[in-house]
Design goal:
With 282 residues, this protein is of the alpha+beta class. The chain contains nine helices and nine strands. The N and C termini lie far apart (85 Å).
Length: 282
């Protein structure tokens, strides 16, 4: 009996010692967190998409409470939501600089040559591994909707010519479509950047047109018509210098013979009426 009581006493003593050590360690190592962070997190959408550049909504809330970012920095938060978060913290909501995913290809099935009939797993990733897919333009969209499948915000839908269309109202710029596209055709850019080259082909001139009627031919007319330095031709493709975005106007697209360069106003792609130009509406 005494042995049993002794064992219990020893175990009890060891437990007490460890409890004291844990309590002291907690007091010493505990990291205090501002209670406003949890409240701010609750006011955020809970999408945890990472489009803000931080690890989820809690990470964004920490930065907002610390004053390092403004509520409008959340790409998913509505204007009213940003105002509510700003009012709670007593800070300025900031200016919304919404970013969206843009597709850099206009080569749908109505204008792009299909050189082979791919039959296999119907994903872009799978098709791309078989000689780059069945499209004549090896840089073009394959149309199997990997981007739409990974979009958790239902912001991408395929149109009737096999191209993904982004709903800018739903897009959070999370970047999942960028990662999913094996051709690298999606990019994240501010909504205010309105001049977009919807082509990634590095083939020039008539050779490019043999594969796609809306390919960039590197003719250079956009370079001449745009503000100085805004557009340049690089490796057979028109490239926009977005550091000069304030200089952008629709003038740059007016003489494009194929419509490869577009002026976009929000969700609508604007183009000049030219009978010979075939374009995909967005």
């Amino acid at each position: 009996m005494n042995e049993i009581l002794g064992s219990v006493a020893i175990l009890g003593g060891v437990g007490l010692v460890f409890a004291i050590i844990i309590a002291l360690a907690y007091r010493k190592l505990r990291v205090w967190e501002d209670p406003r962070i949890e409240a701010a997190t609750a006011l955020l959408p809970g999408a945890n998409c990472g489009a803000c550049g931080f690890p989820g909504c809690h990470g964004f809330a920490e930065k907002v409470v610390a004053g390092e970012v403004q509520p409008a920095g959340c790409n998913v938060l509505s204007d009213d939501g940003a105002a509510a978060l700003a009012a709670f913290l007593g800070v300025d909501a900031g200016q919304v600089n919404k970013k969206v995913a843009r597709l850099l290809c206009a080569g749908g099935s109505n204008v792009a040559v299909q050189q082979a009939d791919y039959r296999g797993l119907e994903t872009c990733a799978a098709a791309a591994t078989v000689a780059g897919g069945g499209k004549g333009c090896t840089w073009g969209c394959l149309g199997f909707a990997d981007c739409a499948a990974v979009c958790t915000f239902d912001a991408i839908a395929m149109n009737d010519v096999g191209l993904p269309v982004v709903d800018v109202a739903k897009c959070t710029a999370c970047g999942d479509c960028v990662d999913a596209c094996p051709k690298g055709l999606f990019t994240i850019m501010p909504l205010e950047q309105r001049l977009i080259v919807q082509c990634r082909s590095l083939i020039e001139g008539d050779e490019a047109l043999r594969e796609c009627a809306v390919a960039c031919t590197a003719c250079g007319k956009c370079v001449v018509d745009a503000a100085p330095g805004l557009v340049r031709i690089e490796r057979g493709l028109a490239v926009v210098d977005y550091s000069r975005n304030a200089l952008a106007t629709p003038d740059a697209i007016r003489r494009c013979p194929t419509g490869a360069i577009a002026w976009v106003d929000g969700a609508q792609f604007v183009e000049q009426p030219r009978a010979e130009r075939v374009r995909i509406s967005a």
